[in-house]
Design a protein that fits this description.
homodimer; about 475 residues; alpha+beta; 7-stranded mixed sheet; 9 helices; about 15% helix
């Protein structure tokens, strides 16, 4: 950590941070063993039982449809609302449509506290249930806080450890960056992704445990264990030092992460700028009741085709000791997604095939996405040339070229059973990229540099960056 | 430049780019001497005479007020429009207001072509007149193109050299980044700032000349010679190699530009993230006719107080050989601005005092601004504690501590006589920063790294970054 010199200037000893991150990633058993972590997570289950039941909108309690706009919102004006969005773009098989979208303009904090224990960095992870999660508890960051939580404007409930993040001691901040969430479902939603180093005075409560990065990487290989918020915060960590090793590909490093890369960083940044300049995306918020082709029943708002997603309502009965219950809307995607990264070595350096993707909810038109990101069912009615590129390649994957193949779910506080198969697949030497300029090969180092800055990588790509690191 | 190896991979020789930039900055006479550049600019004056005359709105030709909204727009829907904006913020002496604002959603290209001549990089600069410019021609980038120009959708006129930028050869791109313009006057306006290296086949036409960076730095010290578009593109250049030297402060370098800096880059990025998270800015586009406290006469839309700016109309009679004339609205600021950077050495390394500034037209709430950026007259009616910080310090500047003191104008195609005094002032050792967290000391290296990415530095700060480099 930086220390003050006699002149009042900082001596930056951050050069050691990459080493410390590498050390944590190489540590498979920390203060707990892998088995102990799983046992702890299992032991917290009874404390977080949530009975989630689909209900009609009429039973939503404090939530209701605005008589004028038809927007679905909470009586207090807090939390989020479901509104309409009209979209016009010059991109993809469908150029103009309307859809419901979640509007949540506040910026929340997703934070992981890290602490050195026995000389190794550990992350303070939380066992957390959320109503949309497929099955039980997942591992969450130390803190998932809304703006109401950290400004205390509405006297929101106290979030444990929040004081480590808002305000954080600037010299203890390891990562702090605004990142977007699902641009197909959220309108310009973003969260502040933070990693902050804390001292030995910070201890783990019952629902919290200190885990090394190596342990988190191992847990990331299990279906539906590490939640989306934890994955996105982990992806924003700075680069680990390269520790060499005979069996894995060398990841070359340079000031801007571009050594050994197929494209210079100037080329990559220029590509993103060009995509943002050339693609047109015009969105207009609209009353939910005016959205064409979406129909509302007692208990769901759905597209006339049955595709995409529904807006539904649930009742949640939670807790065994503290009785707690509430009702809320959730967005329920139709079908399990495929989110895949094709990877390939160039001169021994691993590159990932990244797609410049337009989603209506992005603040800035285009973000960098995995090679494949879709729910195949949504495209079934379209002709072959409108199918998402490379999806057949992913479906036909052979186990010996598949590095990562795990089902993970998205934010369970907004999405109901939103599951995707996350895949990392090494392509054959003969593979070549479509020449349409929508895809570029980037190294993990380049992705890591971009993740210091807001809104380059979308939330799905961030999960796969965390997964790539879990492979090394 | 990168060259292809036998494996098809690029060998990055960009390591030499900082050297080449430093060499160009050190070259005071290029293919032309300073005197020849001034003589050429003078010689182009008769070819670009513009007679600019204030006219009533009724004589605006194809421009008119929409009968419903009162917005001022061109009949074709092209160019830009003047609309209304309602603003609510938690920041500054006035928290809620309405104002006219220029809406121009297209992204244009501002590009400088660079070419090695006699082993030294030269920039292709253009002599360009614009109706709002105070006095005659200014030096502009190689290209100032609208989206209509480069997509040719509307069959816009051919812009010389545009083919070097759209599309550019990705391997020739030195800088390519979206940057905002005046957030007080433009609603989310931004341009693509590009520097592209070209070959010897590109030659300078009559209105164009090749200038070294050293020559541009010298010209930047003259009042109203280097135009805003040229200044912003120059600011996006990568760092020059540090060539040492006894008389000037050492600018330490590191991978992320933070060596020798008071704050690590992680701290700086965290500061920006925190400012964006904590400041609330809610803007809503509104019909111009509904904007309170702004009144419209035959020939101006102005605030009832006489402060801020007016929207006016002009007739332009241009050219001596090619007859060309048109009418257009312009925004006319009231009063000359003060835009100043306080600088101070810490352990021998120069730091600039940067302000996190909220402007209603920013895409992302906050951008980094100079220490002082205001038109003092706009604050005259407010109490002392609502005056812009540090402005008195700038007004009382002593010549021996003043490094830069030049009057420069903003974009003459949108703003009428928008002049500011741009100042760089070294503060005394005893100077200390207000503890409100709105100001941070950053090094030039850190600013240069941030300028690779969109929307960190505002357009006024970018001019002063170009000016800082002109001092070295």
């Amino acid at each position: 950590m930086p220390t003050a010199t006699s002149t009042g200037l900082l001596r930056h000893t951050d050069a050691s941070l990459p080493e410390r991150i590498a050390e944590s990633a190489a540590t498979i058993d920390g203060v707990l063993t892998h088995r102990e972590v799983l046992a702890w997570l299992e032991s917290r289950q009874p404390h977080h039982v949530q009975e989630v039941r689909r209900i009609p909108f009429a039973e939503l309690g404090s939530w209701g449809f605005d008589p004028g706009t038809g927007n679905l919102a909470h009586a207090s004006g807090r939390f989020f609302s479901v509104e309409g969005l009209r979209v016009r773009s010059d991109f993809g098989p469908v150029r103009e449509w309307s859809q419901p979208i979640i509007h949540q303009p506040e910026i929340g904090i997703l934070g992981i506290a890290v602490r050195e224990i026995d000389g190794v960095l550990h992350c303070l992870m939380q066992a957390k249930a959320e109503p949309g999660n497929p099955g039980g508890l997942q591992l969450a960051p130390t803190v998932q806080a809304t703006r109401s939580n950290y400004t205390r404007v509405h006297g929101g409930r106290v979030v444990p450890y929040l004081e480590q993040f808002a305000p954080a001691d600037p010299r203890q901040v390891i990562a702090d960056v605004l990142q977007s969430e699902q641009g197909a479902w959220f309108y310009r939603k973003r969260n502040r992704n933070m990693v902050v180093e804390v001292g030995p005075e910070v201890e783990a409560g019952d629902d919290f445990r200190w885990l090394t990065l190596g342990q988190l990487h191992r847990l990331l290989h299990l279906d539906n264990v590490v939640n989306m918020d934890a994955r996105t915060v982990l992806s924003c960590l700075p680069a680990a030092a390269d520790r060499g090793g005979a069996t894995r590909p060398a990841i070359a490093r340079s000031a801007d992460g571009s050594a050994g890369s197929l494209h210079t960083t100037a080329e990559v940044l220029s590509w993103v700028t060009r995509m943002r300049t050339e693609h047109e995306l015009v969105t207009e918020r609209a009353p939910l009741r005016e959205i064409e082709r979406w129909h509302q029943t007692d208990s769901a708002i759905a597209h006339e085709s049955g595709r995409f997603f529904s807006v539904v309502a649930v009742d949640v009965q939670a807790g065994c000791r503290e009785v707690d219950s509430w009702q809320q809307p959730l967005l329920e995607p139709h079908g399990v997604g495929i989110v895949a990264l094709l990877v390939k070595r160039f001169d021994g350096v691993m590159h990932a095939l990244i797609n410049a993707r337009v989603e209506p909810g992005y603040l800035d038109v285009v973000e960098l996405a995995p090679t494949v990101q879709c729910v195949p069912e949504n495209y079934r009615h379209l002709p072959p040339d409108s199918q998402p590129p490379y999806v057949d390649l992913v479906r036909a994957r052979r186990p010996e070229r598949t590095w990562f193949d795990v089902e993970l779910s998205e934010e369970g506080g907004r999405f109901y059973d939103a599951r995707s198969r996350y895949v990392i697949l090494e392509v054959d030497d003969g593979f070549s990229v479509r020449p349409d300029g929508q895809f570029h090969w980037l190294t993990l180092s380049q992705l890591t540099v971009l993740l210091q800055h807001r809104h380059y990588l979308n939330v799905q790509a961030r999960t796969l960056v965390a997964a790539l690191r879990a492979l090394i």
